[in-house]
């Protein structure tokens, strides 16, 4: 998961907060299945236990308690939910959460793109030889 490098919030001079992306290191240490398992554990920490999804309320409550992000505004929380809410139900299910975490990791996205490109090139290269 990403963690803030500095406690400062975005400003006009610095519209994007600085984050250190830990997902590539986690992927390297844990492997694919281990990383997905850890993302699922993270999902469970943030989800609403009764509904089984991450809601505005559960993210608001748990981001402060679990992640120490108590200074998030309601708009920050709404934007986080909206960013990953593919089925537009106002909440994040486990798959949406995991996909969002990958999307928010530029290094993992680049590594995934490279792996897909290599696999496609290998597949088409193999077919041309036969």
Helix content: 55-70%
Reported for the largest beta sheet, the result is: 2 strands, antiparallel
What's the total number of strands?
2
Q: What series of H and E elements makes up the topology?
A: EEHHHHH
Keywords: Calcium, Metal-binding
Pfam families: EF-hand_8 (PF13833)
InterPro entries: EF-hand-dom_pair, EF_Hand_1_Ca_BS, EF_hand_dom, KIC/PBP1/KRP1
Organism: Arabidopsis thaliana x Arabidopsis arenosa
Please explain how this structure is put together.
- With 130 residues, the chain is mostly helical.
- 61% of the residues lie in helices and 5% in strands.
- It is built from 5 helices and 2 strands.
- It has a two-stranded antiparallel ribbon.
- The longest helix has 24 residues, at 23-46.
- The protein starts with a strand and ends with a helix.
Question: Which terms summarize this structure?
Answer:
130 residues; 5% strand; disordered N terminus; two-stranded antiparallel ribbon; mainly alpha
Quick rundown:
It holds the Pfam family EF-hand_8. With 130 residues, the chain is mainly alpha-helical.
